[in-house]
Amino acid sequence: MIDINNVSFGYNREGDTLKNINLHIGKGECVLLCGKSGCGKTTLTKLVNGLIPHFTENCRLEGEVVAAGMEVARTELYELSKRIGSVFQNPKSQFFNLDSDSELAFGLENIGASPEYMRERLKTVVNELNVEGLEHRSIFSMSGGEKQALAFASVFAMNPDIYVLDEPTANLDGEAIEVLRRQIGKIKHQGKTVLIAEHRIYFLEDLIDRAVYMGNGEIARIYNGEEFFSLSEEQRVKMGLRKLSKEIPSVSRLPGRKTGCELVVKELCCEFKGIPVFDPVSFSAEAGEIVGITGCNGVGKSSLMRCIAGLVKQKSGKVLLNGKILTLRQRNKACFLVMQDVNHQLFGDSVWNECEMSAVYDNRLKIEDILRAFDLYSWKDSHPMALSGGQKQRLAIASGILTDKRILIFDEPTSGLDYEHMLAVSRVIRKLAERQHIILIVTHDMEFLNVVCDRTIMLTAKENGREA
Amino acid sequence: MAEINKNGQIIPIDPRTALLLLLLVTIAVFSQHSFYVEIATLLVIFGLFLYGGLAESGLKFVLQFGFLLLLQYAIFPVAPKLFTDTFSILAAYARKVLPCAMMGAFLVKRIPMRYIVLAMRKWRFPQKLIIPLSVTIRYFPAIREEMGYIRDAMKLRRISGAARIEAYIVPLMFSAANTAEELGAAAVTRGIENPAPKTSVIELRLCPRDYVLIGCGIVLAAAAFHLR
Question: What is the pTM of this model?
């Protein structure tokens, strides 16, 4: 179904992103592409769905890719799209319409299918994928997981022979991943060919026939499914892969340490348009403690954090630091939020300038010190937007620390990160805890949670604030 | 044939009828010199609001109109000159545009974007106009979402004054570039470039009530020119 012969590829004239790739995938096979960030797995998916070379400028492609009987480089994208469906990483930016019904029909409308066929087909899609809950919805009222399920359903509607999935779980919680797992099971059962590039692997057990492990733009090794999932823990870590089995949050490591500096959240409750987002939540955190906060998409984790940081007013309850009740403004001052998309919080025109903007007092030594601690000093003259994702994140943290913030809140700091980068983030956070910051981390990433957090609070839809 | 839209609301009339009515109402109110035509226009639109299940918001518009009449005929003649001079022009204009605003509100509240795009396609507006228009409208709410995040970030960093404007623009530009790229990739892999004529799940069909409404609109516009 997919034949990749002697392919080498570069995004520009010099340097190869992919080298000498040979891969043959039969009809009905489900193949995982894995490896560290930058190993070329996303690039490989683009070779198959035609984004390379059709949607990539100035690239250099050698060799031949044939998918569903079409030579990809010589076939128009809209022809390829009839038989090759793609689901991408970011649920926010793969919709062309503002309501779910239009989106489901979008692909079929583009090929000019008849209205009768479309109505029939959409009914089938909704039944087969059990996505009744997604009909007649506005895109803006959907959680990330629902959006990703809709993206999958919209591709499913076109009934392609090949599905190309590029890190589809990067922004999903455990439940949404389970939904995706069932959806993949469905298409596999229908005999479709599936190519999936992923960091998170555990949910693919029993689904994949082969796993292609890539490194430095080459295929390092191909495992069959069984072989791959029986890799030893040691081998997995050496390969830089995420856990092969599902993680459940483990319990407290260091309960009740007394340091004298304490954040207390008492019966906190917020409203959105008059509707309570979650039931009153109470918990406390000590200086130097790392508290994880988890729960399904849309359960109100982000609202809770924004409320603690004083960005939204609470309906009832209070936030105390060192025994003093904080007003909204004081909370703004005490807290720093490292956002999931750090692009929203970098405003300077150089790394150094970014830090200067934040520093409460003009202190070159302190800035230098912090930039060195975060491995950013050699980049001090670069523009923040020219940095890599991890560097941007560290710069945002640095700017928060320079503003003298005691409480640091992280919103999904590891979405889409491979094993090594996840470890790097957890090292940075550990370091912050040693500096006696109070750290709250909102995450779906159980593996990360277990690596870094001392304690986990699970927000549930009904009775909130249960501690695990 | 009333359809249910995404929020479970009823889509009361064909989008083409709504767009035509907006045009006809605009012609009527700007060329009329007769109080009766004005009242009739208002009543037709109010009827449409009732039909579309928007009684409350329709009533608000009617009350506003009543208030403007009261102002012009009962209060201005007896009010101090300064007050009258300041507000009379404003009141006269507000009264003129009120029916158009009301019709516009109806469109926004009851006709989803998708239907308006479809209407434009039926009227053979060029693709070159429809795609950018629908993308722009699609992008507005996304920008609002992003601005929300940036505002949060600024609050926590205490950025003020002129720096705020720059602080909005830089992240927005970068995220727009990213979004455009990702959106583009999603659209081309779903066949947006296919030259085949596009079809639609929804079929637009004008039914008697649409003809009645368009008829009303034409009568009003015609009356506006002839009745003095």
Answer: 0.81
